Amino acid sequence: MKWLEKLDTIDPRWVYIIMAVSLVFPVLKPIGLAITIDETTTVPVFNWIESLQPGDIVVGDVAFSGGSEGELGPQLQSWFRHCMIKGVKVIMVAQWNTGERLGYTLLEQVANELEAEGISAEYGVDWVYVGYKPGGTTLWRQMQLDFWGACAETDMLGNSFQDLPLMHRFKKWDKESSKGIMAFVSGSPGLPTYTTYFPDYEIYVGNVAVQVPGAMNTLRAGQIKGLLAGLPGGAQYELLLNRPGRAVKLMDAQSMGHLWIMVLVVLGNIGFYMKSRARDE
């Protein structure tokens, strides 16, 4: 049984090669591992959009940067796709200037795909990307009183609000003009902006996994109504929408990577045990 004693000294090159294969293969060819949909966190977000009428307006916020795109990017895209399919209009803001261009690129990609399918996702009519505006959280309070003035009447691309038909229905940010808020956050500023300045609004959140425990307290307290929790939240939303995409693929890869780590732990312990027994003999 000498070969069992070598299990705790596996060549690291093989460890990384198998890990790479475990991560890449499911992305190229999804395995379709089971994903449980959370009725407490994910489903309320989905049901919120399902309950809206075509033409209703919701506001989304990109409060993250490239480092969190792997988790929040799929969430943002699947949620935006759902809105466009339902005919719900979307106005996007960005609390983080580092994520402003990233968020627009992600939404533009979805809009182009939907247009190719014959689903309306016309910029200025179905969605507008206002983007980042300097002024901090105080500006978000001003947006409730005079959205056009607070945003200098221009979107991220430099278009005048006058030239964007959707913006004529959104002069100020209040509960009559907006049917809810969806904030994709990975730090500060983030969710506290809305729980502080928009406490009476329907608030939903897409969060990175590391912040989910803290966000769950906000959910239980009723300050937010739904929560997309990290990459699993994005995958669950894709499945609810019957459009499995990048998040489902990445969940397969993540699960296979975790499985390989568990195998290594077991093999290492077997090798250590066999070596210890050999020494004792």
Fraction in beta strands: 5-15%
Helix content: 40-55%
Distance between the termini: 13 Å
What is the β-strand count? 6
Spatial order of the strands forming the largest sheet: 3-2-1-4-5-6
Rg measurement, Å: 23 Å
Task: Report on the architecture of this protein.
The chain has about 280 residues and is of the alpha/beta class. About 50% of the residues lie in helices and about 10% in strands. It is built from 11 helices and 6 strands. Helix 4 packs across helix 5, helix 4 runs parallel beside helix 10 and helix 10 packs across helix 11. It starts with a helix and ends with a helix. The mean pLDDT is about 90.
List the topology elements.
Blueprint: H1 2-5, H2 12-28, H3 42-51, E1 57-63, H4 69-86, E2 89-94, H5 100-116, E3 127-132, H6 136-145, H7 147-150, E4 181-185, H8 191-197, E5 203-207, H9 212-220, E6 226-229, H10 230-240, H11 246-280
Features:
single chain; 281 residues; alpha/beta; 6-stranded parallel beta sheet; 11 helices
In short:
This protein starts with a helix and ends with a helix. It has helices spanning 2-5, 12-28, 42-51, 69-86, 100-116, 136-145, 147-150, 191-197, 212-220, 230-240, 246-280, and strands at 57-63, 89-94, 127-132, 181-185, 203-207, 226-229. With 281 residues, it is an alpha/beta fold.
